Amino acid sequence: MREAQGFITLVCRGDRSTMSTAGKVIKCKAAVLWETNKPFSIEEVEVAPPRAHEVRIKMVATGICRSDDHVVSGHIVSPFPVILGHEAAGIVESIGEGVTSVKPGDKVIPLFIAQCGKCRRCKHQESNICMKNDLPSKYQGKLQDGTTRFTCRGKSIHHFMGTSTFSQYTVVDEISVAKIDAASPLEKVCLIGCGFSTGYGSAVKVAKVTQGSTCAVFGLGGVGLSVIIGCKAAGAARIIAVDINKDKFAKAREVGATECVNPQDYDKPIEEVLQEMSNGGVDFSFEVIGRLDTMASALLCCDKSFGVSVIVGVPPDSQILPVDPMLLLTGRTLKGAIFGGFKSKDSVPKLVTDFMAKKFPLDPLITNVLPLEKINEGFDLLRSGKSIRTILSF
Ligand code: NAD
Ligand code: ZN
Description:
- Its cofactor is Zn(2+).
- This protein is 27% helix and 22% strand.
- It is of the alpha/beta class.
- The protein has 2 domains: 26-193 and 362-393, Medium-chain alcohol dehydrogenases, catalytic domain (Quinone Oxidoreductase, Chain A, domain 1, Alpha-Beta Complex), CATH 3.90.180.10; 199-338, NAD(P)-binding Rossmann-like Domain (Rossmann fold, 3-Layer(aba) Sandwich), CATH 3.40.50.720.
- The strands form 3 sheets. Strands 3, 4, 5, 8, 9, 16 and 17 form a 7-stranded mixed β-sheet that branches. The chain has a 6-stranded parallel β-sheet with strand order 12-11-10-13-14-15, sandwiched between helices. Strands 1-2-6-7 form a 4-stranded antiparallel β-sheet, with no helix packed on it.
- Helix 7 (249-255) links the parallel strand 11 and strand 12.
- The longest helix has 14 residues, at 2-15.
- The protein is globular and about 65 Å long.
- The structure holds nicotinamide-adenine-dinucleotide and zinc ion.
- Nicotinamide-adenine-dinucleotide binds at residues 65-67, 70, 194-195, 198, 218-224, 242-245, 248, 263, 288-291, 294, 312-314, 338-339, 382, 385.
- Residues 65-67, 70, 194-195, 198, 218-224, 242-245, 248, 263, 288-291, 294, 312-314, 338-339, 382, 385 line the site of nicotinamide-adenine-dinucleotide.
């Protein structure tokens, strides 16, 4: 703390003539969630300067993901009060001591899955769950040094997954931010911060969808549609989109679904419908909703011998999915992944480069754009099934 203050004073003196905000507390607007099942409240918050190995970011755009709503509903447990938001893009305003990978003015994407690059899991080729992550089941709502940078009405406000992007300014650890192409459109590539990468990676990296295969995707939100984009990119021959909201089918077809089914149109369980449609079971299935019953259906609908089922949806806090081991004994694989299995700091800049090279689209995922002040309207659109992604602009 003492060390950081020294640094702050120095930067303040150096920048006084340019009216820089570096080293100063910034007062700005943020959407604060004071308790579960309540609307967000637009408040003036104080954002402290970044300490050593931290970065303060001026937010430009942030998407609304179902995982944020899971905290509002209590499906994901997080300490309150909190500033949510984890799918965003912005510009570095200032950096703390020792930061080397970004500098003021850089375009960046905050990373809700950190990558320290040094721990046992970061060094493992297949893993993307850095040991420094603040993950579900034990969210602390703090930065790496165990404190917060937000204050509102005299109270300390928790961070969310190390990102907290529903704020005009946020502070993140250096291991939780990636520099991206200076030419990239932030109001689009913000989706690479969560929904797009999670879905796309679940198909191409986690399931490793194969050419000519049959896939079933349960849930056609921003993440599920991105799974479809990934299945298509991997060369799947059939992509069966499953949702109880038929209004989602047109968009699913637009991004690559070959068939769409609504479980409510059938008298029998959806897994049986899908088994019949695929001559015994699909090659790859994805649960992209966050419900135990659809996780079971997704597992059951894949082939009992070579089927691979991937859990992408976040399950409700502390609930158990009972699985008959016989379902796996015959050879099925059940797996799951956060952020599509991508190592965040390494992969996010590459995904942005791929987007700039037109290797995949993001436009179909963006249905609404609203100012931060209308965040509650944005969440209502998600809850009523009327939006895919709403982008909040600052
Ligand atoms: P979303 O709410 O936009 O989409 C969910 C879709 O599921 C909706 O279209 C809805 O109509 C459909 N649905 C709801 N109940 C259904 C049912 N019983 N049967 C069939 N369809 C049903 O959500 P999203 O933002 O796309 O996120 C999807 C899930 O992925 C959420 O649980 C979210 O928390 C999770 N998620 C996980 C990660 C990760 O890293 N694994 C990252 C982001 C989001
Ligand atoms: Zn998300």
